[in-house]
Amino acid sequence: LLTPDMDKYLNKVCADIVDNKTRWEVRAELEAHLEDKMERLIGDGLPENVAADKAIHEMGNPDELRQTLGQLHSRVPPFDMRSALTKLAFGVFFSTFSIDTWILRPITQAFGFFLIFMAIFQLRKCNFKLKIGFIIAIVNFIMRMATFAIGLTPSPGMTVSIILTVLANIIDCGMMYFIYVGLGELAEKYSTPGDVHPIRKYGIYNIILTAAVVIIIVMPPIAFLMLPMLVLYVIFAIKNINSVKNILIEADEGDNVCELRGFGRVLMAGLAVIFIAVPLGVAHIIVTPDVDAQPYMMSNENISIRAELDELRVEDELLEAIPDDELPNFEGAVKATNSFSNHELKRKGLVSVYCTSFAFEDKVILAELVDFDRMPKGRYTDSIYYTIYNFPNIFNIPEPDRLLMLYEADGETYFYEPINITYHEDGMRIKHIDFRLPENADDVRILKLSTLIPTEEYSDMQMNINTGLTYVNRSSLICWPYSETESDITYVSDKGVGYKRFNVVGLITTDGEAPKGSYSITSQDGMVYNYDEDGNLIFAHNGALAEQNGFKLYVE
Amino acid sequence: VKLSKELTKGTTALIVLSVLKRGEMYGYQIIRELEVMSDNVFSLNEGTLYPILHSLEKEGCLTCFWEETESARKRKYYKLTDKGLRELESQTQQWEVYSGAVKKVLGGATLAHA
Fold this sequence. Notes:
B: about 110 residues, globular
C-alpha cells in the first residue's frame, strides 16, 4: 500500500533520529498510521493517489515533524552520565601514561586513546582547535602502537622504538595543546565575556611536563619525581576539564553537551584498540623479564641480547650466504648437550643473540648480557663514566657484581669492573651500570659486557666457543677476542651446516694465556683441531666427530 | 471550527491521556477516537500526536507493545500506566481550575459590556 511518496516522507521525517532501532520503530509506527489512513480514505471513495496525498498532507509538515522527533530522540540515556568530556579527561590521562615498569602500558595507552576517540564522536560542540587535537590524537595512537610493535623486534628495533617514543611525546604536546586550548575556547564562549578559562594553561604545562619527562629519562636519579608530577598534573587537568563540562552543561541547561553519534564508528575504534593493543600488551608481558627469576636458574627466555651484526663484526655480504629459512635450528643443539652456546640468526642485517648460558651441574651461568655499543667520538678526560641504562628492562642480571666490561680505547683493550650499579626497587633488575673509562681516551668502543664465572661455582667444565667472541675456561674465566683477523664460523645443527664469515680476532684470557679446557677449531678446509685442557692438540678430524663432543660452533 | 495551534498546545497531552484511559490504542486509533468523541472539533494534526506519545512514554506515563494485525500490519499500542493515571488526574484538575477561571473571565467580560 505504501507509495514512493510515503516512503520518502517517512525517511525524511525520521532522518534525525540517532539510534537505529528507535528510528525503525518510529518509522514502522508512522507507516502503519499512513496505511490505516489511506485504507480508510480509499474506503470513503477517494482514488488511490488522492488518498495517498491526503494521508501525507494530514500528517503535517515533514520538516517540523523531523525536528520534533529528532529532538525527542536525540539522546541515548545510558550515555548521559558519562559525558564526552569525562572520557576526554581520562583519555588524556591514560593515553600519555608512560611509566616504564607498567607492563600493561600498551593496553593502558590504547584504552586512553579509545576514550579520546569516543569523545570525538560524542562531542557536539567541537571547535576547530579541538578537531585538530583529535586528528593529532589519531596520529599519536598509530605512533604509540607502532612504538610498541617495533620495540618488540630485535635491534635496531629498540632504538627506533625509543626515537618513536620521543617523537610521540612531542606529538603529545601538540595533541594536548590543541585539546586544552580548544576546550578553553569552548568554555569561554559560554561563560562571562572576557573570562579566560584556566584550562588553556594546560597546553603549555604539558609542553613543560614533556620536557621534564625527557630530562628524567636522561637523568634517572630524579626519576622519583615523575609519578608525583604526573599525578598532580592529571588531577588539575581533570578538575579543569570538569569545570569546562559544568560551564557547558549550565549554558545548555543540562542538555546537548554531547550525544552518542556514530556508535558503529566508536565500536570499530574499540575493536581496533583491542586487536592492536591486547596482543601487544601480551607480547610486552612476555618479553619483560620475570622479576622473580632466581639467580643461576635463569633460562634463555629471560634474557635477550640484541646486537647488530656489524657490532659482532660479521660482514654484511655473508648474511646472504644462508637464507633465513635455511638457518640452522639451534634448539636441536640445545637438547644435545648441556654445555652450549645458543645463537640465532634472525633477520637480514640483524643477529639476535640470546643469552649465552652455560650449564654446569644444574647451574646456569650467564655469560653475555648486553648489546655492544659504540661510544661517541671525542676526547674523554679524567673520571669519565660510561653508564649503561637498562632502559627497556630487557635483562635481568643474576650476579651483577661479577660484571665486567671489555672495551677498546684508542686501540687498546681494557676491561673493568663496574664502579656502580643501580637497582630498581625490587632489588633484582638493574637500572644502570656505571663504568669508569680510561683517562684521556679518544675513541672508545664497548666490546662486551660479561659476567665473571666464579671458580667455586664449578668443578669441571668444558670450554665453549660461541660466536668466536667469547669463551670460558677453568682458570682465567673469561676470554675475549683481541686482535682483528678474519675467520670463518661454521654452525652445526640438526638442520645441517651453516657458514658465516666473522671478523673474529685472536683469543686472549684475563691472564694473557691460552685458555684451558678442551676445545676445537676448524680450518677452512673443514678439518677440526681438538685441543686438550692444557692447550695441546690432541687430534684433527672432520667436523662430524666434534659434534659428538658437544661442540656446536667452530672457530678458526 | 478550526482551533488555533496556540490554544490546543498545552492540552494535547491531557487529551491523549484521557483518550487512553478508555483502553489501549494505537496512534491512528487515538485520532479516530478523538474525532468521534469531540464531534470532529479535535482534529489533531496527526504528525504531532506521535512526538507527544513518545515523550509520554519516555516519562513513564505510557507503556507500549507491538501487535500484528490481520493485514500483517504491525501496530504500536499504548497503554496508560499508574503514573499516567495520576498525571491524568492532576492535569484534569489543573484544567478544570484553569478552564473555570477562563470561563469566569469570559463571562465577566460579557457582563461588563452589558
